[in-house]
């Protein structure tokens, strides 16, 4: 019966009326309306200010309910507690706080420095320090050094706050990518309880701001892409695009790793433009608008933001500092150490200072110290500071009398190309000299030693003769290419006898040369290292009073900006030294090893990730690659998987996140520089989001309740892993047994031997402090007897009986900073005896190495004991007696040796200067016999801490 029933056809319209297609609506909308909105939708659009024909949509694709906002607030509170829990502990310097805290102090002191990282993150930390009263006096010198008068908590709050803000960004990004609320919640919990991100965000470091701005850029770009799908060139579309550009500028202004974020957004933008180009509905003019809008907001805005950060950097650092030596002479003129105008013309008899062009090493320099080997003649070096030992007189080498040329009364003779000259050192009256002797450091056949040779009244020999070869002049000064002109002419100095060229490179002399830069005469000299120029010239007697003067051309912002970028790039590529905790990219996804941040008081801070989150994210990346490859193979066999809307959705979603992961991870394989585990954090963020996207796909067919239960199990496992390793993130007490049970991978080198056996033992540990009110004992001082020695009995610290042995993996070292300078005492390099470092000529202080002023610290003030001022620094003893104190057993570690040296120096600090004579030696031995515990006890109350071996 039912089979005979035919479907009813729609009624045929009357003749003369147009054909109207059948509608599924019982009451079809008016034919005159083209917006497709019903009355309620039009009323909602009007309430938001939209026109009557505009379809509404959630800004940026964020369809978030009020319940989700409440849930997100709860997650944010949890993240705040996790990140800020006991953030004031430890109250001493941790890992690379050595560097970035020091940079904040330099900003506050306005002393110029150079770092391989852009300034934004450091400026944010400095702003917090300044607002909370930091005066820049704390030097952040060593790991484990206790903070004094330093708002370190406020400084740590900057990366901590940005670390907290990363949590809601993970949630909002996945929701904007059309993932379920359960998936977004799981991602936010993973970011909250990731131990590595927690550890890195609780200290004065740059990676937490970097990860935050990476996450912010990703969120803004996803919002822009959603707006672009709905309707381009609207106000919201421009807002999301501009915010993406600003965030790109911020991420690259924190670290150059932000370039990988720019590459990620760039790849996705190119893909968008490619798809628009293939859409025939998009007119070429419209496509051009899309192109120029993206170029403006994603290239020009980030570049302007980046340059603005460096403009602030230059404005703040307006005075001379430790970074001067890495910049050009023109650059240094802007740092408060400008040079007075100097005479432009150079002639025979001129007194000049000569600088090296390429290495920025400084001035051609000599001082009254000899080479320990070779000819043993007077040293020639490059010295970076202005000093009277840099002054030379140009003499005529074609005249055999002494003085060689009457430059006072005879007509002036300018120095031209091919002029044969001698250079006479003004202070020591010796000539610049070279001969066929190998240099002490660059001991190769084509290098010859350069020295200062001769004496007053000695005419010298042919080995003192040099030939000027003008290389180039300044375009603005035509004469500078014909004859030598101050600051304008670059020239080479060819040795007449051997044919080698005066040469310098970035090779430092040993301590006997005060670590100044080596100068040689090179027969195969690279032109860039054989170029010199004259910086200053005193008034020649034959020059009129109105003679022309010149000075450095003060560079503008753009010139300074480009020079600093070149210095940063060259230095960054040169960071190839090994570090005890560096690692290669292949080990990062497997979490093979962490970084020791801090060891002290039987506690440790060790950067290690949450193993469950880490390995799950790595597995998700591999799963996506395998599944994507499998789908590609299926498509080759004719399967239509990519016509399935569900697969297309998740392929696009996971493909975007995988692109972010790949662009932040793979480039590290191309780098030969020093790398650490924390370089993986931006890639880890994308891997975490990808793992949650895989979870969203895998549970898409399940009921919401089941999906929520699975997510809860994953979150609980992640939280359990977090709690398992939390003592390493917070520096909390831990036991040896718990530490050993947490070493799931044999390459995790926690300092388990540093922890105590039981938690109860931590309550009894007290940090020993010297008793300043204790009496003193005087040994010796009898009439006619041995010299008195004052021993402070109050400096015998009481050390708790605990195991203080430091395991082989427990030395916390900062990363390498090639711009850092070791703090050295001022070293003089002028007459006082041949070969004797530290000689002084009368009251004149010459050639000070490391002349940066330092402020008095509490450690220095404590050096005064009972009115006796202890002599700091190393003093050369002209004679030493045989061993005075017998050592019963060899020290167990390098730290023990350092501690015994400190104790011995403390016991002998009150000794008067000079050789250690027999009476003092006996008195010193008596002191050791009276106070054996002082001799054997460590000199520092910090247990388990060693000085970092390499100052980055």
Automatic annotation (TrEMBL):
GO terms for molecular function: dolichyl-phosphate-mannose-protein mannosyltransferase activity. Residues 32-46, 857-869 have a biased composition (Basic and acidic residues). Pathway: Protein modification; protein glycosylation. Its main location: endoplasmic reticulum. It comes from Paxillus involutus ATCC 200175. It is a multi-pass membrane protein. CDD domains: beta-trefoil_MIR_PMT1-like. Keywords: Endoplasmic reticulum, Glycoprotein, Glycosyltransferase, Membrane, Repeat, Transferase, Transmembrane, Transmembrane helix. Its EC number is 2.4.1.109. The chain crosses the membrane at residues 112-134, 154-174, 204-225, 259-279, 291-310, 612-633, 653-671, 677-698. It holds the Pfam family PMT_4TMC. It catalyses: a di-trans,poly-cis-dolichyl beta-D-mannosyl phosphate + L-threonyl-[protein] = 3-O-(alpha-D-mannosyl)-L-threonyl-[protein] + a di-trans,poly-cis-dolichyl phosphate + H(+); a di-trans,poly-cis-dolichyl beta-D-mannosyl phosphate + L-seryl-[protein] = 3-O-(alpha-D-mannosyl)-L-seryl-[protein] + a di-trans,poly-cis-dolichyl phosphate + H(+). Gene3D superfamilies: 2.80.10.50. Residues 1-57, 849-898, 933-952 are annotated as: Disordered. It is found in: Endoplasmic reticulum membrane. InterPro entries: ArnT-like_N, MIR_dom_sf, MIR_motif, PMT-like, PMT_4TMC. GO terms for cellular component: endoplasmic reticulum membrane. Residues 343-397, 412-471, 481-537 form the MIR domain. This is Dolichyl-phosphate-mannose--protein mannosyltransferase. Belongs to the glycosyltransferase 39 family. Transfers mannose from Dol-P-mannose to Ser or Thr residues on proteins.
């Amino acid at each position: 019966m039912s089979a005979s029933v035919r479907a009813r056809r729609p009624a045929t319209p009357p003749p003369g009326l147009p054909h109207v297609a059948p509608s599924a609506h019982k009451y079809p909308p008016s034919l005159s309306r083209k917006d497709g909105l019903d009355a309620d939708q039009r009323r909602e659009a009007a309430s938001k200010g939209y026109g009557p024909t505009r379809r509404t949509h959630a800004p940026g694709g964020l369809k978030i309910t009020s319940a989700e906002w409440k849930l997100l607030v709860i997650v944010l509170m949890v993240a705040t507690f996790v990140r800020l829990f006991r953030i004031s502990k430890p109250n001493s310097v941790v890992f690379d706080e050595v560097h970035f805290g020091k940079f904040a102090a330099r900003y506050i002191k306005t002393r110029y420095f150079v770092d391989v990282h852009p300034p934004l993150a450091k400026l944010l930390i400095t702003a917090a320090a300044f607002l909370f009263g930091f005066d820049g006096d704390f030097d952040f010198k060593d790991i484990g050094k206790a903070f004094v008068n330093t708002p370190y908590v406020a400084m740590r709050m900057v990366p901590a706050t940005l670390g907290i803000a990363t949590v809601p960004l993970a949630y909002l990004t996945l929701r904007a990518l059309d993932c379920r609320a359960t998936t977004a919640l799981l991602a936010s919990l993973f970011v909250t309880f990731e131990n590595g991100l927690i550890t890195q965000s609780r200290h004065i470091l740059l990676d937490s701001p970097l990860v935050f701005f990476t996450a912010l850029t990703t969120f803004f770009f996803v919002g822009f892409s959603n707006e672009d799908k709905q309707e381009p060139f609207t106000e919201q579309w421009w807002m999301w695009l501009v915010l993406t550009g600003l965030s790109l500028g911020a991420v690259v202004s924190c670290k150059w790793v932000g370039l990988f974020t720019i590459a990620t957004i760039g790849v996705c933008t190119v893909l968008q433009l490619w798809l628009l180009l293939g859409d025939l509905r998009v007119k070429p003019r419209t496509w051009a608008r899309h192109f120029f809008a993206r170029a403006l907001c994603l290239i020009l805005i980030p570049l302007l933001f980046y340059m603005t950060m460096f403009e602030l950097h230059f404005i703040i650092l307006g005075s001379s500092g430790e970074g001067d030596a890495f910049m050009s002479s023109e650059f240094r003129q802007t740092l408060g150490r400008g040079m007075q105008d100097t005479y432009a013309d150079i002639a025979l008899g001129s007194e000049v200072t000569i600088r090296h062009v390429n290495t920025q090493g400084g001035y051609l320099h000599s001082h009254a110290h000899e080479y320990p080997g070779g000819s043993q003649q007077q040293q020639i070096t490059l010295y970076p500071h202005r000093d009277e030992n840099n002054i030379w007189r140009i003499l005529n080498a074609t005249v055999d009398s002494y003085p060689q040329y009457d430059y006072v009364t005879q007509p002036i003779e300018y120095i031209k190309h091919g002029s044969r000259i001698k250079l006479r050192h003004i202070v020591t009256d010796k000539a610049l000299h070279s001969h066929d002797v190998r240099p002490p450091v660059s001991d190769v056949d084509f290098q010859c030693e350069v020295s200062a040779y001769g004496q007053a009244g000695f005419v010298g020999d042919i080995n003192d003769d040099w030939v000027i070869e003008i290389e180039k002049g300044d375009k603005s000064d035509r004469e500078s290419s014909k004859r030598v002109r101050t600051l304008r002419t670059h020239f080479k100095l060819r040795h007449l006898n051997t044919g080698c060229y005066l040469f310098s490179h970035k090779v430092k002399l040993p301590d006997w040369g005060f670590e100044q830069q080596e100068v040689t005469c090179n027969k195969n000299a690279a032109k860039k290292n054989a170029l010199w120029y004259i910086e200053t010239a005193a008034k020649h007697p034959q020059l009129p009073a109105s003679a022309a003067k010149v000075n450095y051309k003060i560079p503008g912002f753009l010139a300074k900006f480009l020079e600093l970028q070149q210095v940063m790039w060259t230095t960054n590529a040169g960071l190839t030294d090994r570090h005890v905790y560096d690692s290669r990219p292949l080990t990062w996804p497997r979490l093979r090893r962490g970084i020791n941040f801090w060891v002290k008081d039987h506690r440790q801070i060790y950067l290690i990730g949450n193993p469950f989150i880490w390995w799950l994210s790595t597995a998700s990346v591999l799963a996506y690659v395998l599944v994507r490859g499998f789908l590609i193979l299926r498509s080759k066999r004719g399967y239509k998987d990519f016509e399935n809307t569900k697969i297309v959705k998740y392929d696009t979603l996971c493909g975007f996140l995988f692109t972010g992961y790949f662009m932040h991870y793979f480039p590290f394989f191309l780098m030969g520089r020093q790398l650490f585990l924390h370089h993986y954090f931006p890639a880890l963020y994308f891997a975490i989001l990808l793992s949650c996207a895989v979870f969203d796909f895998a549970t898409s067919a399940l009921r919401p309740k089941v999906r929520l239960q699975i997510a809860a199990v994953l979150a609980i496992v992640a939280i359990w892993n977090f709690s398992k390793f939390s003592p390493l993130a917070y520096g909390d007490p831990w036991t040896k047994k718990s530490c050993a049970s947490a070493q799931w991978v044999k390459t995790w080198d926690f300092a388990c031997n540093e922890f105590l056996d039981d938690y109860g033992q931590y309550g009894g540990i007290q940090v020993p402090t010297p008793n300043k009110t204790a009496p003193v004992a005087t040994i010796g001082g009898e009439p006619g007897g041995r010299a008195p020695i004052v021993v402070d009995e109050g400096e015998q610290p009481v050390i708790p009986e605990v195991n203080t042995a430091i395991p082989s993996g427990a030395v916390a070292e900062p990363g390498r900073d090639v711009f850092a300078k070791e703090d050295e005492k001022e070293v003089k390099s002028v007459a006082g005896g041949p070969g004797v470092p530290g000689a002084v000529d009368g009251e004149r202080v010459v050639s000070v190495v490391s002349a940066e002023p330092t402020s008095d610290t509490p450690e220095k003030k404590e050096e005064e004991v009972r009115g006796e001022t202890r002599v700091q620094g190393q003093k050369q003893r002209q004679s030493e007696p045989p061993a005075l104190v017998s050592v019963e057993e060899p020290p167990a570690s390098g730290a023990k040796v350092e501690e015994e040296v400190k104790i011995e120096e403390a016991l002998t600090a009150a000794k008067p200067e000079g050789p250690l004579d027999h009476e003092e030696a006996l008195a010193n031995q008596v002191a050791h016999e009276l106070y054996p515990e002082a001799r054997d006890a460590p000199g520092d109350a910090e247990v388990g801490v060693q000085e970092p071996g390499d100052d980055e």
